[in-house]
Amino acid sequence: MRIIKSKLITDSKNILKCLLIWSKHETVSCLLTSNGHTDPYGKFDILLGLGVKTSITTRPDASLLELSNFRAKTQDWLLGFLTYDLKNEVENLQSENQDGLDFPDLYFFQPLKLVRIRGNYIEFLYLPEVAADIEKDFVSIFESSEDKVVSKNYATPKIKVRFNKDAYCEQVNKMLDHIHRGDIYEANFCQEFYAESKIDPLKSFQHLNDISKAPLAAFLRIDSKYAMCSSPERYLCKRETKLISQPIKGTARRSVDMVEDLKLAQVLAQDPKERSENIMITDLVRNDLSKIAGKGSVIVEELCKVYSFKQVHQMISTITAEIKSDTDPILCIKNTYPMGSMTGAPKLSAMQIIEKLENSKRGLYSGSIGYFEPNGDFDFNVVIRSILYDAEKPYVSFSVGSAITAQAIPEKEYEECLLKAKAMRETLEA
To answer: Which residues pair with 56 in a beta bridge?
Structure first.
Protein backbone atom coordinates (compact mmCIF):
# COMPACT_ATOMS: atom_id res chain seq x y z
CA MET A 1 0.00 0.00 0.00
CA ARG A 2 1.27 3.45 -0.89
CA ILE A 3 1.27 6.33 1.56
CA ILE A 4 -0.55 9.23 -0.12
CA LYS A 5 -0.24 12.89 0.79
CA SER A 6 -1.63 15.83 -1.17
CA LYS A 7 -0.43 19.42 -0.97
CA LEU A 8 -1.55 22.68 -2.55
CA ILE A 9 0.79 24.33 -5.07
CA THR A 10 0.71 28.11 -5.06
CA ASP A 11 2.60 28.44 -8.36
CA SER A 12 2.65 25.50 -10.77
CA LYS A 13 4.12 27.38 -13.75
CA ASN A 14 7.61 25.89 -13.44
CA ILE A 15 6.66 22.60 -11.81
CA LEU A 16 7.70 20.48 -14.81
CA LYS A 17 11.24 21.88 -14.81
CA CYS A 18 11.45 21.60 -11.04
CA LEU A 19 10.49 17.91 -11.16
CA LEU A 20 12.96 17.18 -13.97
CA ILE A 21 15.81 18.87 -12.14
CA TRP A 22 14.89 17.31 -8.80
CA SER A 23 14.89 13.81 -10.29
CA LYS A 24 17.91 14.15 -12.59
CA HIS A 25 20.30 12.24 -10.33
CA GLU A 26 18.11 9.13 -10.28
CA THR A 27 19.37 6.44 -12.64
CA VAL A 28 15.82 5.19 -13.33
CA SER A 29 12.92 7.59 -13.78
CA CYS A 30 9.92 8.20 -16.01
CA LEU A 31 8.03 11.47 -16.34
CA LEU A 32 4.80 11.75 -18.34
CA THR A 33 3.13 15.10 -19.06
CA SER A 34 0.01 16.30 -20.86
CA ASN A 35 1.52 19.78 -21.30
CA GLY A 36 -1.77 21.37 -20.33
CA HIS A 37 -3.86 19.48 -22.89
CA THR A 38 -7.08 18.00 -21.56
CA ASP A 39 -9.00 15.02 -22.88
CA PRO A 40 -11.69 12.70 -21.47
CA TYR A 41 -9.18 9.96 -20.68
CA GLY A 42 -6.20 11.77 -19.13
CA LYS A 43 -5.89 11.50 -15.34
CA PHE A 44 -3.10 13.94 -14.52
CA ASP A 45 -1.06 16.89 -15.71
CA ILE A 46 2.25 15.26 -14.78
CA LEU A 47 3.17 11.82 -13.45
CA LEU A 48 6.72 11.11 -12.28
CA GLY A 49 8.03 7.80 -11.02
CA LEU A 50 11.55 7.40 -9.68
CA GLY A 51 13.60 4.89 -7.75
CA VAL A 52 13.13 1.16 -8.23
CA LYS A 53 11.41 -1.23 -5.83
CA THR A 54 11.17 -4.00 -8.42
CA SER A 55 11.55 -4.08 -12.20
CA ILE A 56 11.28 -6.31 -15.24
CA THR A 57 13.43 -6.21 -18.34
CA THR A 58 13.09 -8.92 -20.95
CA ARG A 59 14.30 -10.16 -24.28
CA PRO A 60 12.29 -11.95 -27.00
CA ASP A 61 9.88 -14.89 -26.78
CA ALA A 62 8.10 -14.53 -23.42
CA SER A 63 8.19 -10.80 -22.66
CA LEU A 64 4.44 -10.20 -22.52
CA LEU A 65 3.77 -13.31 -20.45
CA GLU A 66 6.47 -12.24 -17.98
CA LEU A 67 4.98 -8.72 -17.87
CA SER A 68 1.52 -10.16 -17.17
CA ASN A 69 2.88 -12.20 -14.27
CA PHE A 70 4.92 -9.25 -12.97
CA ARG A 71 1.92 -6.90 -13.03
CA ALA A 72 -0.32 -9.47 -11.31
CA LYS A 73 2.31 -10.02 -8.63
CA THR A 74 3.05 -6.37 -7.84
CA GLN A 75 -0.54 -5.03 -8.02
CA ASP A 76 1.00 -1.56 -8.03
CA TRP A 77 1.88 1.34 -10.31
CA LEU A 78 4.27 0.36 -13.10
CA LEU A 79 5.95 2.78 -15.51
CA GLY A 80 8.00 1.86 -18.54
CA PHE A 81 8.08 1.05 -22.22
CA LEU A 82 7.37 -1.47 -24.97
CA THR A 83 9.55 -1.50 -28.09
CA TYR A 84 8.26 -1.94 -31.62
CA ASP A 85 10.18 -5.22 -31.86
CA LEU A 86 7.75 -6.96 -29.52
CA LYS A 87 6.05 -7.62 -32.88
CA ASN A 88 8.42 -10.59 -33.13
CA GLU A 89 6.71 -12.15 -30.14
CA VAL A 90 3.17 -11.28 -31.21
CA GLU A 91 3.79 -12.62 -34.74
CA ASN A 92 6.41 -14.95 -36.24
CA LEU A 93 8.74 -12.13 -37.29
CA GLN A 94 12.38 -11.10 -36.94
CA SER A 95 14.34 -7.86 -36.67
CA GLU A 96 17.87 -7.98 -38.02
CA ASN A 97 18.49 -4.40 -39.12
CA GLN A 98 21.16 -2.07 -37.71
CA ASP A 99 20.50 -1.17 -34.05
CA GLY A 100 22.55 1.65 -32.58
CA LEU A 101 20.66 1.89 -29.28
CA ASP A 102 19.93 -1.67 -28.12
CA PHE A 103 16.98 -0.98 -25.84
CA PRO A 104 15.54 -4.16 -24.25
CA ASP A 105 12.24 -5.35 -25.72
CA LEU A 106 10.41 -3.98 -22.70
CA TYR A 107 11.18 -2.48 -19.32
CA PHE A 108 8.84 -1.63 -16.44
CA PHE A 109 9.58 -0.60 -12.89
CA GLN A 110 7.62 -0.26 -9.68
CA PRO A 111 8.67 3.20 -8.48
CA LEU A 112 9.60 3.79 -4.87
CA LYS A 113 8.37 7.35 -5.26
CA LEU A 114 5.47 8.49 -7.41
CA VAL A 115 4.55 12.17 -7.78
CA ARG A 116 1.35 13.24 -9.49
CA ILE A 117 0.29 16.77 -10.43
CA ARG A 118 -3.42 17.46 -10.89
CA GLY A 119 -4.48 21.08 -11.17
CA ASN A 120 -3.06 23.03 -8.23
CA TYR A 121 -2.25 19.94 -6.19
CA ILE A 122 0.86 17.83 -5.92
CA GLU A 123 0.30 14.28 -4.68
CA PHE A 124 2.97 12.04 -3.23
CA LEU A 125 2.27 8.31 -3.60
CA TYR A 126 5.24 6.74 -1.81
CA LEU A 127 5.95 3.18 -0.76
CA PRO A 128 6.17 2.87 3.06
CA GLU A 129 9.97 2.53 3.14
CA VAL A 130 10.42 6.03 1.65
CA ALA A 131 7.29 7.75 3.03
CA ALA A 132 9.37 9.64 5.59
CA ASP A 133 10.90 11.58 2.66
CA ILE A 134 7.63 13.25 1.58
CA GLU A 135 8.01 16.50 3.54
CA LYS A 136 11.71 16.82 2.63
CA ASP A 137 11.00 16.07 -1.03
CA PHE A 138 8.16 18.62 -1.16
CA VAL A 139 10.61 21.32 -0.12
CA SER A 140 13.40 20.02 -2.38
CA ILE A 141 11.21 20.00 -5.48
CA PHE A 142 10.36 23.66 -5.19
CA GLU A 143 13.92 24.60 -4.31
CA SER A 144 15.03 23.04 -7.59
CA SER A 145 15.81 25.66 -10.19
CA GLU A 146 17.78 25.86 -13.40
CA ASP A 147 20.54 27.97 -11.89
CA LYS A 148 21.47 25.01 -9.67
CA VAL A 149 22.10 22.80 -12.69
CA VAL A 150 25.12 23.28 -14.89
CA SER A 151 24.12 22.28 -18.42
CA LYS A 152 26.84 20.45 -20.29
CA ASN A 153 27.74 22.20 -23.52
CA TYR A 154 28.67 19.55 -26.03
CA ALA A 155 29.55 20.13 -29.65
CA THR A 156 26.58 20.27 -32.02
CA PRO A 157 25.91 16.71 -33.22
CA LYS A 158 26.74 15.99 -36.85
CA ILE A 159 23.48 14.37 -37.93
CA LYS A 160 23.77 11.57 -40.47
CA VAL A 161 21.08 9.80 -42.49
CA ARG A 162 20.43 6.14 -43.16
CA PHE A 163 18.74 7.10 -46.45
CA ASN A 164 19.53 10.06 -48.68
CA LYS A 165 16.59 11.42 -50.65
CA ASP A 166 17.20 9.28 -53.73
CA ALA A 167 17.58 6.08 -51.70
CA TYR A 168 14.45 6.91 -49.71
CA CYS A 169 12.40 7.49 -52.87
CA GLU A 170 13.73 4.24 -54.35
CA GLN A 171 12.49 2.30 -51.29
CA VAL A 172 9.10 4.04 -51.42
CA ASN A 173 8.77 2.99 -55.04
CA LYS A 174 9.41 -0.61 -53.97
CA MET A 175 6.69 -0.17 -51.34
CA LEU A 176 4.37 1.11 -54.09
CA ASP A 177 5.14 -1.99 -56.16
CA HIS A 178 3.88 -4.12 -53.24
CA ILE A 179 0.74 -1.99 -53.03
CA HIS A 180 0.07 -2.25 -56.76
CA ARG A 181 0.50 -6.03 -56.55
CA GLY A 182 -2.06 -6.15 -53.77
CA ASP A 183 0.34 -7.34 -51.04
CA ILE A 184 -0.67 -4.39 -48.83
CA TYR A 185 -2.94 -1.35 -48.95
CA GLU A 186 -0.82 0.91 -46.77
CA ALA A 187 2.41 0.80 -44.79
CA ASN A 188 4.31 3.17 -42.55
CA PHE A 189 7.82 3.60 -43.90
CA CYS A 190 10.42 5.11 -41.57
CA GLN A 191 13.97 6.43 -41.74
CA GLU A 192 16.55 7.11 -39.05
CA PHE A 193 18.69 10.18 -38.46
CA TYR A 194 21.59 9.63 -36.06
CA ALA A 195 24.80 11.00 -34.59
CA GLU A 196 27.61 9.45 -32.58
CA SER A 197 27.76 12.38 -30.20
CA LYS A 198 27.12 13.36 -26.60
CA ILE A 199 24.10 15.49 -25.68
CA ASP A 200 22.56 16.80 -22.48
CA PRO A 201 19.32 14.73 -22.24
CA LEU A 202 17.57 17.01 -19.74
CA LYS A 203 18.33 20.16 -21.70
CA SER A 204 17.31 18.43 -24.95
CA PHE A 205 13.98 17.27 -23.54
CA GLN A 206 13.17 20.70 -22.16
CA HIS A 207 13.91 22.26 -25.56
CA LEU A 208 11.96 19.63 -27.50
CA ASN A 209 9.04 19.87 -25.11
CA ASP A 210 8.97 23.67 -25.32
CA ILE A 211 8.90 23.45 -29.12
CA SER A 212 6.12 20.85 -29.32
CA LYS A 213 4.01 20.95 -26.11
CA ALA A 214 2.64 17.52 -27.03
CA PRO A 215 -0.17 15.91 -24.98
CA LEU A 216 1.56 12.55 -24.44
CA ALA A 217 5.13 13.69 -23.86
CA ALA A 218 7.60 11.65 -21.82
CA PHE A 219 11.11 11.81 -20.41
CA LEU A 220 12.48 8.37 -19.64
CA ARG A 221 15.82 7.32 -18.19
CA ILE A 222 16.95 3.74 -17.69
CA ASP A 223 20.60 3.95 -16.62
CA SER A 224 22.52 5.20 -19.70
CA LYS A 225 19.51 5.04 -22.03
CA TYR A 226 17.14 7.98 -22.49
CA ALA A 227 13.93 8.77 -24.38
CA MET A 228 12.92 12.39 -24.97
CA CYS A 229 9.45 12.04 -26.38
CA SER A 230 7.07 14.72 -27.67
CA SER A 231 4.31 12.40 -28.84
CA PRO A 232 0.87 13.69 -29.83
CA GLU A 233 -0.52 10.16 -30.27
CA ARG A 234 -2.26 7.73 -27.92
CA TYR A 235 -1.76 4.05 -28.73
CA LEU A 236 -4.12 2.48 -26.21
CA CYS A 237 -5.81 3.45 -22.98
CA LYS A 238 -7.92 1.39 -20.57
CA ARG A 239 -10.48 2.96 -18.29
CA GLU A 240 -12.33 0.26 -16.30
CA THR A 241 -13.93 -1.85 -19.06
CA LYS A 242 -13.41 0.66 -21.87
CA LEU A 243 -10.49 0.59 -24.32
CA ILE A 244 -9.59 3.71 -26.29
CA SER A 245 -7.26 3.98 -29.27
CA GLN A 246 -6.55 7.24 -31.13
CA PRO A 247 -4.44 6.65 -34.25
CA ILE A 248 -2.97 9.60 -36.13
CA LYS A 249 -2.74 9.62 -39.89
CA GLY A 250 -2.56 12.94 -41.70
CA THR A 251 -0.20 15.84 -41.02
CA ALA A 252 -0.06 19.48 -42.11
CA ARG A 253 2.22 22.31 -41.08
CA ARG A 254 1.12 25.24 -38.89
CA SER A 255 1.32 28.89 -39.95
CA VAL A 256 1.81 32.02 -37.86
CA ASP A 257 -0.81 33.67 -40.07
CA MET A 258 -4.19 32.79 -38.51
CA VAL A 259 -6.10 32.84 -41.81
CA GLU A 260 -3.55 30.62 -43.56
CA ASP A 261 -3.34 28.33 -40.52
CA LEU A 262 -7.10 27.77 -40.53
CA LYS A 263 -7.00 27.07 -44.26
CA LEU A 264 -4.20 24.52 -43.80
CA ALA A 265 -6.33 22.69 -41.20
CA GLN A 266 -9.38 22.76 -43.48
CA VAL A 267 -7.39 21.45 -46.45
CA LEU A 268 -6.05 18.60 -44.29
CA ALA A 269 -9.57 17.72 -43.13
CA GLN A 270 -10.76 17.39 -46.73
CA ASP A 271 -7.65 15.85 -48.29
CA PRO A 272 -8.76 12.57 -49.91
CA LYS A 273 -5.31 10.92 -49.59
CA GLU A 274 -4.96 11.79 -45.90
CA ARG A 275 -8.53 10.69 -45.16
CA SER A 276 -7.93 7.43 -47.01
CA GLU A 277 -4.81 6.75 -44.90
CA ASN A 278 -6.66 7.49 -41.70
CA ILE A 279 -9.71 5.39 -42.55
CA MET A 280 -7.57 2.37 -43.48
CA ILE A 281 -5.82 2.48 -40.10
CA THR A 282 -9.10 3.11 -38.29
CA ASP A 283 -10.43 -0.10 -39.84
CA LEU A 284 -7.28 -1.93 -38.77
CA VAL A 285 -7.68 -0.71 -35.17
CA ARG A 286 -11.36 -1.72 -35.19
CA ASN A 287 -10.32 -5.20 -36.27
CA ASP A 288 -7.62 -5.41 -33.55
CA LEU A 289 -10.00 -4.29 -30.82
CA SER A 290 -12.68 -6.71 -31.98
CA LYS A 291 -10.40 -9.64 -31.00
CA ILE A 292 -10.98 -8.89 -27.30
CA ALA A 293 -14.08 -6.67 -27.29
CA GLY A 294 -17.63 -7.59 -26.47
CA LYS A 295 -19.76 -8.28 -29.53
CA GLY A 296 -20.91 -5.08 -31.22
CA SER A 297 -19.06 -2.84 -28.76
CA VAL A 298 -16.37 -1.45 -31.10
CA ILE A 299 -17.35 2.11 -31.98
CA VAL A 300 -15.66 4.84 -34.04
CA GLU A 301 -16.43 7.87 -31.88
CA GLU A 302 -14.50 10.33 -34.05
CA LEU A 303 -13.39 9.84 -37.65
CA CYS A 304 -10.69 11.97 -39.27
CA LYS A 305 -10.99 14.89 -36.85
CA VAL A 306 -8.27 17.51 -37.17
CA TYR A 307 -6.52 18.59 -33.97
CA SER A 308 -4.00 21.43 -33.85
CA PHE A 309 -0.73 21.18 -31.94
CA LYS A 310 2.08 23.68 -31.57
CA GLN A 311 4.02 22.54 -34.66
CA VAL A 312 1.53 20.64 -36.82
CA HIS A 313 -2.13 19.90 -37.52
CA GLN A 314 -2.96 16.19 -37.12
CA MET A 315 -5.88 14.04 -38.29
CA ILE A 316 -7.00 11.75 -35.47
CA SER A 317 -9.69 9.10 -35.14
CA THR A 318 -11.00 7.73 -31.84
CA ILE A 319 -12.06 4.09 -31.61
CA THR A 320 -13.43 2.56 -28.42
CA ALA A 321 -14.47 -0.92 -27.27
CA GLU A 322 -15.88 -2.64 -24.19
CA ILE A 323 -14.10 -5.61 -22.61
CA LYS A 324 -14.92 -8.01 -19.77
CA SER A 325 -14.01 -6.70 -16.32
CA ASP A 326 -11.60 -9.59 -15.69
CA THR A 327 -9.65 -9.19 -18.96
CA ASP A 328 -5.89 -9.22 -18.42
CA PRO A 329 -4.61 -5.73 -19.40
CA ILE A 330 -1.59 -7.34 -21.10
CA LEU A 331 -3.96 -9.31 -23.33
CA CYS A 332 -5.37 -5.98 -24.56
CA ILE A 333 -1.86 -4.96 -25.58
CA LYS A 334 -0.97 -8.32 -27.12
CA ASN A 335 -4.02 -8.25 -29.40
CA THR A 336 -3.43 -4.71 -30.66
CA TYR A 337 0.37 -4.44 -30.80
CA PRO A 338 2.17 -2.91 -32.59
CA MET A 339 -0.19 0.01 -33.18
CA GLY A 340 -1.81 0.22 -36.59
CA SER A 341 -0.64 3.74 -37.34
CA MET A 342 3.00 2.61 -37.32
CA THR A 343 2.51 -0.62 -39.26
CA GLY A 344 -0.08 -0.79 -42.06
CA ALA A 345 -2.79 -2.90 -43.59
CA PRO A 346 -2.92 -5.84 -43.62
CA LYS A 347 -0.77 -5.56 -40.53
CA LEU A 348 1.34 -8.75 -40.82
CA SER A 349 2.20 -8.23 -44.49
CA ALA A 350 3.00 -4.58 -43.85
CA MET A 351 5.39 -5.46 -41.01
CA GLN A 352 7.17 -8.05 -43.16
CA ILE A 353 7.67 -5.56 -46.00
CA ILE A 354 8.69 -2.75 -43.64
CA GLU A 355 11.42 -4.95 -42.20
CA LYS A 356 12.86 -5.61 -45.66
CA LEU A 357 12.77 -2.01 -46.89
CA GLU A 358 13.87 -0.11 -43.79
CA ASN A 359 17.56 -0.24 -42.92
CA SER A 360 17.57 0.35 -39.15
CA LYS A 361 15.88 -1.42 -36.28
CA ARG A 362 13.09 0.70 -34.81
CA GLY A 363 13.55 -0.38 -31.20
CA LEU A 364 11.75 2.05 -28.92
CA TYR A 365 10.81 4.30 -31.83
CA SER A 366 7.21 3.48 -32.79
CA GLY A 367 6.95 1.54 -29.57
CA SER A 368 5.19 2.92 -26.52
CA ILE A 369 5.81 4.62 -23.15
CA GLY A 370 3.20 4.67 -20.41
CA TYR A 371 1.93 3.27 -17.14
CA PHE A 372 -0.25 0.69 -15.44
CA GLU A 373 -2.31 1.53 -12.36
CA PRO A 374 -2.86 -0.99 -9.54
CA ASN A 375 -6.43 -1.63 -10.77
CA GLY A 376 -5.23 -2.56 -14.29
CA ASP A 377 -6.09 0.73 -15.99
CA PHE A 378 -3.33 1.97 -18.29
CA ASP A 379 -2.41 4.62 -20.82
CA PHE A 380 0.29 4.32 -23.50
CA ASN A 381 1.50 6.72 -26.16
CA VAL A 382 3.13 6.09 -29.53
CA VAL A 383 6.85 6.90 -29.47
CA ILE A 384 7.10 9.36 -32.35
CA ARG A 385 8.59 12.88 -32.55
CA SER A 386 11.23 11.60 -30.15
CA ILE A 387 14.98 11.62 -29.55
CA LEU A 388 16.52 8.39 -28.24
CA TYR A 389 19.96 8.37 -26.69
CA ASP A 390 22.54 6.03 -25.21
CA ALA A 391 24.99 8.14 -23.21
CA GLU A 392 27.45 5.29 -22.80
CA LYS A 393 28.15 4.70 -26.50
CA PRO A 394 27.39 7.66 -27.20
CA TYR A 395 24.66 7.41 -29.83
CA VAL A 396 21.72 9.74 -30.47
CA SER A 397 18.86 8.88 -32.84
CA PHE A 398 15.55 10.14 -34.10
CA SER A 399 13.34 8.53 -36.72
CA VAL A 400 10.38 9.74 -38.75
CA GLY A 401 7.98 8.06 -41.12
CA SER A 402 4.97 8.52 -43.34
CA ALA A 403 2.13 6.35 -44.55
CA ILE A 404 2.58 5.01 -48.06
CA THR A 405 -0.60 4.36 -50.04
CA ALA A 406 -1.30 3.92 -53.75
CA GLN A 407 -1.58 7.72 -54.10
CA ALA A 408 1.83 8.38 -52.52
CA ILE A 409 4.38 10.51 -54.35
CA PRO A 410 7.84 9.59 -53.01
CA GLU A 411 9.21 13.15 -53.07
CA LYS A 412 6.22 14.46 -51.12
CA GLU A 413 6.52 11.68 -48.56
CA TYR A 414 10.15 12.67 -48.09
CA GLU A 415 9.08 16.29 -47.51
CA GLU A 416 6.55 15.10 -44.91
CA CYS A 417 9.34 13.25 -43.12
CA LEU A 418 11.46 16.42 -43.03
CA LEU A 419 8.51 18.35 -41.56
CA LYS A 420 8.15 15.76 -38.81
CA ALA A 421 11.90 15.79 -38.19
CA LYS A 422 12.08 19.56 -37.79
CA ALA A 423 11.56 19.73 -34.01
CA MET A 424 14.12 17.00 -33.23
CA ARG A 425 16.74 18.47 -35.59
CA GLU A 426 16.18 21.96 -34.18
CA THR A 427 16.56 20.58 -30.64
CA LEU A 428 19.88 18.87 -31.39
CA GLU A 429 21.28 21.76 -33.39
CA ALA A 430 20.32 24.43 -30.82
So the answer is: 108
